[in-house]
Amino acid sequence: MIKGLEDHTSTFAAVEEAPATPVSARRMTLNMGPQHPSTHGVLRIILELEGETIMSAEPDIGFLHTGIEKQFETRNWQQAVTLTDRVDYLANLSNNLGYALAVEKLLQIEIPARAQWIRVMMTEFTRLNSHLVWLGTHALDIGAMSVFFYCFREREDLLRILEMFSGQRMMTSYIRVGGLALEPPRGWQKVVGKFINGFPSKVDEYENLLDQNPIWRKRTIGVGYISVEDMLDLGITGPMLRAAGVNWDIRKQEPYSSYDKFDFTVPVYQENDVYARYRVRLEEMRQSTRIIKQALEGMPEGPWQADAPHVVLPDREKMKTQMEALIYHFKIVTEGFRVPAGEAFVCIESPRGEIGYYIVSDGTSKPYRVHMRTPSFGNVQALPALLKGKSIADSIASLGSVDFVLGDTDR
Amino acid sequence: MLPEILNDNATAAAVDAQFSAAVLGGEKQHGESTLFIDGAQIVAVCGFLKHDLKFVRVSSITAVDWLPADPRFVLVYHLHSLERNERIRLKVKLSGDNPEADSVTSVWRGANWYEREIFDLFGIRFRNHPNLTRILMPLDWEGHPLRKDYPVHGYKYSYPTE
After folding, report:
1. Which candidate in B35, B60, B87, B132 is best for mutational testing of the A interface (most A CBs within 10 A)?
2. How many cross-chain Cβ pairs, A to B, lie less than 8 Å apart?
3. Tens digit of pLDDT for each residue in A129-179?
4. Percentage with pLDDT > 90 across chain A
5. Residue A222: its pLDDT value, please?
6. Mean pLDDT along residues A68-72
7. Is the pLDDT of residue A17 over 70?
8. Residue A268 to residue A285: CA distance in whole angstroms
9. Contact check, Cβ <8 Å, A61/B56
10. Band of the pLDDT at A302, cuts 50, 70, 90?
11. Which of A283, A296, B91, B126 could form a disulfide with A267 if both were Cys (CB 3.0 to 4.6 A apart)?
């Protein structure tokens, strides 16, 4: 039985019978969600209220559980990439990358520089995409409606770029084990260049819309405090921590996929409130733009797939002339490649925090076990600590500032 | 007893020095260090790692089902120290089909949901857990889906040949 639910009926009975206790001392159990617009997904929170103050909050998750970790065990290694897309539907490419890096660690194959740089560029596009959706919906929750339209205008351009690269707007599966799914399309530099040159002024535009808005400032500054100890203990990662003065970004601390070759800063704020989290994400959008610009200007030439014929599908032309290529093609398509027995845990920085892929192989062509350490799971776990003692009106701003995706929580 | 390959790992050495009876072994793969810990001592070892060695974060806790091997289940803890930017993996082997383990929620409160998830999906029970209920599956669900003997389509839609 979920805590808070057992006395749920008795609470209503007490309300009907004109209570003897004074109004201020009465407790009310309020069921928020699972279909509540501010939870951005299917999250249910059981709130215990005393007046307007939240005395306790109990998140109830699992509504979007689809058994993805179980499904991994039935697909071969390359097919499983498509499952990683569907975990966090706003940061698909980050999940692709985390999975691919973990499998490549077990396979011990070297990824060429061009593929690594494209991977960086694509995951930064994902970060922009995710932060834009966050900013738009968060502002919408608080009451600034127009920001939503501005953010989704740029998101549309971004999704077109993703479609240009991979053929898909959202479930891209563009980063594969061994490199990329497709060669970057002809003329991508022009499209990406046009977008990225225009984007910084768009970020300024969002800032102008919100920063001078007295309602936005009143509703975010000083709201949503949670101590750093609680955050670390409960598993919060990502922009929430950086808005509380913890300078920890896996892109800097444990660089992967040649992030160490890029020049960018990690925005850190000390205020630890909703406003600081907004500033961190806004700054991160500017830094992502810088990274994409560097990737665009310094993109190395060379192959976009690893030199590993037992993993990567052979070139179509080679298959017509070379026997080995044909054999590898047959093996990879029918059985899938085998991964040496062992285990690997790879963490990367997603827009929401630390994504970790723990992969166990028993030497066959299917994963034995894949565990995803998803950022939203840790972040949602901390909601009771975040909401306790706050007013119910502020809970909407606080919830939004966590930026969780329920698909990511429930998997 | 630590294997030679972990000799250069200061964390592993410190744990081994403090709890020589609890460290059952270790390994290093692809630069990731693992310590095998005696299940009876896991709370003490985790407390030491958090308070003395500053592994303030538990990155994730999960389990692996090695059916038909015995011990069947392995609990896997991934810990992270922000201060030294270091990660370490602990493993606890559990034998039997319905094993019990000690909860580490008293060390990291964040272990709460990870242990509930393991209970839900693997059926491993945790002693001294504040609220050991299902978290992802419905409360009245039967069976534990991530066990290897649980069919992929569930019992309702499975076929005998599967």
Report:
1. B60
2. 84
3. 999 999 999 888 888 888 899 999 999 999 999 999 988 888 888 999 988
4. 38
5. 86
6. 91
7. no
8. 13
9. no
10. confident
11. A283
ipTM score of complex: 0.91
Whether A371 has a pLDDT exceeding 90, the answer reads yes
pLDDT of residue B79: 92
Q: Quick check: A373 and B146 CB within 8 A?
A: no
Q: Are B32 and A345 in contact (CB < 8 Å)?
A: yes
Mutate to test the interface with A, among B27, B30, B147 (most CBs of A within 10 A): B30
Percentage of the residues of chain B whose pLDDT score is greater than 70: 95
3-state SS track over chain A: CCCCCCCHHHHHHHHHCCCCCCHHHCEEEEEECCCCHHHCCCCEEEEEEECCEEEEEEEECCCCCCCHHHHHCCCCCCCCHHHHHCCCCCCHHHHHHHHHHHHHHHHCCCCCHHHHHHHHHHHHHHHHHHHHHHHHHHHHHHCCCHHHHHHHHHHHHHHHHHHHHHCCCCCCCCEECCEECCCCCCCHHHHHHHHHHHHHHHHHHHHHHHHCCHHHHHHHCCCCCCCHHHHHHHCCCCHHHHCCCCCCCHHHHCCCCCHHHCCCCCCCCCCCCHHHHHHHHHHHHHHHHHHHHHHHHHCCCCCCECCCCCCCCCCHHHHHHCHHHHHHHHHHHHCCCCCCCEEEEEEEEECCEEEEEEEEECCCCCCCEEEEECHHHHHHHCHHHHHCCCEHHHHHHHHHHHCCCHHHHHC
Q: How far is B109 from chain A (nearest CA, A)?
A: 6
